[in-house]
Amino acid sequence: MWDFGIELASEHQNRATSYITARNNLIYHCHTAGVSIGGYAPERGHTDHCTVVNNTLYENDTSATGSGELQMQWNMADNIFENNIVYAGPHCLLVLNKSQVDKSQPPATIDHNLYHCVSGRRRAHGRGLPPR
C-alpha cells in the first residue's frame, strides 16, 4: 500500500498547510500512519486549522514504524480529529503525538472517535498525549 494514507503537512520552513478538511475516507494497510499531520521535524513547516472527520482508519502502520493510526508531528495548532473510526492492528498504537508546542494548548482537538485494538483493549495506547 502507501506510506501515509493522508498527510496534511508542510515540509517547508515558515510555510503552512492550513484549512484543509479530510472527510469520509477509508484509510487502510498503510506502511506508516493512516493520517499524519504537522511538520516532520521541528525546523519544518506547520499544520493549522485542519480537520480530519468521519474517516475510517483500519490497521495502518503495517511496517511497525511506531507512527500508529494518527501521527501528530511538530508545529501544529487548532486542528480537529473527530468522529472517526480507528481500528488499530496488533501493535495497537492509536495516536502518536510528537508535537512540542505549548502544552497548555493541544495540537489538535481529539473527540467523539471510536477506537478498537485487534489485540485487546488493554494493549490499546497512545504516545505523547496529555493525561486525561
* Count of DSSP-assigned helices: 0
Uncertain spans, ≥5 residues at pLDDT below 50? none
State mean pLDDT (0 to 100 scale).
88
Shape call: globular
Euclidean distance between termini CA atoms:
34 Å
Number of strands: 16
- β-strand percent reads 35-45%
Give structural notes.
The protein has 132 residues and is mainly beta. Helix content is 0%, strand content 40%. The chain has no helices and 16 strands. It has strands at 6-8, 16-18, 21-23, 26-28, 35-37, 46-48, 51-53, 56-58, 70-72, 76-77, 79-82, 85-88, 93-97, 108-111, 114-117, 125-127. Strands 1-5-9-13-16 form a 5-stranded parallel sheet, with no helix packed on it. Strands 3-7-11-14 form a 4-stranded parallel sheet, with no helix packed on it. Strands 4-8-12-15 form a 4-stranded parallel sheet, with no helix packed on it. The protein is globular, with a radius of gyration of 13 Å. The N and C termini lie far apart (34 Å). The model has no long low-confidence stretch (mean pLDDT 88).
